[in-house]
Amino acid sequence: MSRITSAALTGVDGAPVEIEVRISSLLPRVDIVGLPEAAVRESAARVRAAVGAVGLRFPDRRVTVNLAPAELRKSGAALDLPIAIGILAACAEVPNEGLPGLALIGELALDGRLRGVRGALSLVLACRDAGCRRVVVPLANAREAALAPGIEVCGASSLRDVLGDITGTQKLAATEAPRIFDRDADGWNGADEGNDPDGPCLREIRGQESGKRALEIAAAGGHGVLLSGPPGSGKTMLARRLPGLLPPLAFEEALEATRIHSAAGLLDQRRPFVRRRPFRAPHHTASPAGLMGGGNPPRPGEVSLAHRGVLFLDELPEFDRRALESLRQVLEDPVVRIARARHNCVFPAHFMLIAACNPCPCGWYRSHKRDCRCDETTIAKYQRRVSGPLLDRIDLHVGVPAVEWKDLDRPAEGPDSRSVRARVVAARAVQHRRGVTANAELPDRSLDAVAGATTQARSLLGRAVDSLHLSARAARRVLRVSRTLADLAGEPHVLPVHVAEALGFRHES
Questions:
Q1: What is the CATH number of the domain that holds 287?
Q2: 4: nearest Cα among 99, 121, 134, 111
């Protein structure tokens, strides 16, 4: 009998798994128990072929493989390697002495090669938490897995390499994380990689001063934005420049995003780390499961892939109504909880929402460029595709009118993304000292105290709530935006001018 430590992926998190192998004198067969999914049950065939490919004899007796804990459902092929080593150790082909403190992760090819797996970083972290001091992973996952602190990571290209390491004939070298991911006094020395200096710049946009100002406010406070305007007015151009205004990812934020993208199988092996704020722009035909996550086994959706970054929903009214309504809960509580009969997963989904829409189906309602061809009933039906409760959760509503040729023909002017980003970083530093990442996350219980609104500012907000029939949620969101405007201006208190500007963005669309 032998015991091997490994891990299984559940959502984006890893769970430690102990693999027990017992060989008995019964009719030859391989039984794998412990709630294995199809890919795990099929590992018996891959392991048999890989063991034969390295010149060893697969036991011709009853092989029972138990995956503990039994109540955890196991999926994927990452358990191939530990099952193979467990079988060889149980039949004394490899010594058991080299197994304590060692974890194994990897998928086997029929010729004994090791293939990369999804979620390697999460799996290694789970092995570390289970008490392992060393882990062997496929060479394709080694650089990603080496980001896990507190455990030695070794990359192997084949089952033969792993056998040589366990028997001591050829020890595998430890893999070092790329230097740009090392921690330093300010977090990590890859912080300057947070934004692409050659990426789209805010100065490239002619006109749309209101939209540019809204992007700065949104980036400074983590607020959601709705851009409404006719086709070709620059809504998508504005949205794609938002990531360049955000502060660089902190090390822990980058680690979170890396785990999610690894679990989804989206990491580049050459640069296995998410260094820049994610920007996800799903098509409006995306299903609710594609947007929120799901499947069997569950995988992260677009809202989780945008974690610590930006989720851009273009043509907002064209999205499936169920998909849009599912966003309401996530905007309040930034996690996605998937409850199934066989799976219960929690996906992080802390993102900034920026959405764009046309005012009507033809797009030219209230435009001075062309005449609108839609009747009032059609316009009302189109606008009702996005529910009021969802709109109520978006802080900034920005009108994006068509730009005149005289403005388009001017040379590019105004602040660039780098200078705006500097103001955003300064404002976020003030918010960080208050104990929050961004003002959009301020809890209601401390909002009044943190906002520090003057009597005149609160009076103006009260009159606006009564005259504009704002909901209590909308009023609190206006106050959060006002606090962000005060931070950008370097004011310790929210003044009437800040409330007035925040109210203007609430109803500009």
A1: 3.40.50.300
A2: 99
